[in-house]
Amino acid sequence: MSIEFQVGPRKAHRDAYYALRERCFRRELGLPEFDGSEEDQDREGEILVALRNGQCIGGARISNRLLMPSQVEMLELDAESCCMWERFVIDPRVRTVQLVRSFCARLIDASLDLGNEHAMVLSSLRNARFYRRCHSALGVGFKIHRPVPHCAQGSFAGLEHYLSVAYLGERQPLRLAV
Length: 178
Fold this sequence. Notes:
Blueprint: E1 3-7, H1 11-28, H2 40-44, E2 46-52, E3 55-63, H3 69-74, E4 82-90, H4 97-113, E5 118-123, H5 125-137, E6 141-147, E7 162-167
Parallel strand pairs: 4-5
Antiparallel strand pairs: 1-2, 2-3, 3-4, 5-7, 6-7
Helix pairs in contact: 4-5
């Protein structure tokens, strides 16, 4: 399965990503009213999509709009070199650990290319633990900091929210076990 990753994809691929995130968030997160269509943060940030045979099979938003400035300060992060990873989705029909890991690697590269040293993530504890394993395998520090239930807004109110940070600028070279 040959996967292509694009930052700032053309409109058709962005629209396919929006439809995919709506379908997945409605089904997998149990949010029947979730509207996956384009948001202000999509236009202001960057979208990374994964394409297989020209079809969108995943995506995420890299946003420089930090929703939690107090958390940035408490964690002693530089707001100028910090982004949020949001609306992460991989089509469940093709989702594998390797695909998610490859997507995370490209998300890290794209964020670094945009000048970010840290990426903040809001997710369930289960997902945060999975992301931590992926980042560890990629040589990137990833720390689950704390539950932040007050950050759950709109459709996401009532869902579990943990704040995690990927320490992109501290990437370690990968070593092969012998």
